[in-house]
# Entry
Amino acid sequence: MLNYAPLPDLLALTILVFVFWSILRRRAGGKLQAWLLGWIFILLHFAAQLFGGRPGDLQTFVYVFSAMMLALAGAAFIYAAGGGECGGRLRWIAAAGLLAVLLYILFFYLSNTPTPWYYAAVALLLATVVAVLFRDPDRSTGERNVYALLVFFLAVLLGLVTYYRQEGYGLDCIFFVVYLMAGIQYWRKFPERTTGSLTAVVGLLVWALVFPVSALLSIYRPGLHIQDSVWNIPKYIVAIGILLTLLEEQIDHTHHLALHDPLTSLPNRRLLKDRLTKALERAERNGARVAVLLIDLDHFKLINDTYGHPVGDEVLRIVATRLQMRIRKADTVARVGGDEFMVVVSDLLQPHGAQVLAAKLAADLNEPIVMGAVRLPVGASIGLGIYPDDAQTVEELCAKADANMYEQKRHRK
# Structure
């Protein structure tokens, strides 16, 4: 007979998989693919439980298949929680969880040895394998110690629970470590602690605790019955947290695009005006100076017409990098036009400091840009305006820098 108890969870997970698939269609990325794959494995895990009531070998197969789907989901979640990166550490951690489940199932179901020491040896083997996989010489000693402690914790748990020779408890311990690792990776990936990331981390940690808690209750409180729907609540908390995180990332991305140039990632006019306004207000209170440098590239149109827009775009990105390398972190460089950039220098200590910076920027931009066998001379005309010497408002200051820039351009021609 079929077990119809998992049907509500199957329906909910099917909708969840459809939601992640719909998001993935509009926003490609390895992280989203890993999340979608993980939820597909969870869906298959519940689908297998429909046949859990069948006796004989089918029940054993369903149990093993269900455990494997849960392990694959945990590996996918570790990978996705780390940002979908192809880093060696994440790959090996995910592989370690899968290998632990495979070895446990292999030795538990294919061995006829009832001696508890045999299972303790299996636990030691698993701990050794996982310790080798976790080893990462490029990481700091402190971080390696954290993972070594987790591996030791895994070995102790496996050795203790397999002593009782109770079916499935060893897997519970492995799953606890796998999903705990996913929670730790998510916590490390989002240090800003947003609502979405905190929800996902709490869900993953509670999900990890479900496995040892359920095993302990079955051993010490066998008469206590908790519905499966209660144990499945953490899964949906994780799903809500992931979706909230994706929404927060999309909002941050949209906000970034509204305030930055998409080609160079520099602030645009809108953000520049806001920062310049604040710089003038702070300078008025402190009696300081603010300098505005308007930079117009001399030969950009010729480069664009001769070599095409892709080369022109790369020239703009290189120019933006050179400007950022020259200014202080407290200052702002923005792209305000096709080949125009503006630098805002706040808290200027000496009036001639702006002229010195302008000369250095001009020297940097006079250096040809080498692209393959081609040397592209760029050059720039730089106009300067200083608050409060030349102007009192944002508009007047920008107009002064613009006038000085065109005067220099006419002089250079």
About this structure: The first helix runs from residue 7 to 26.
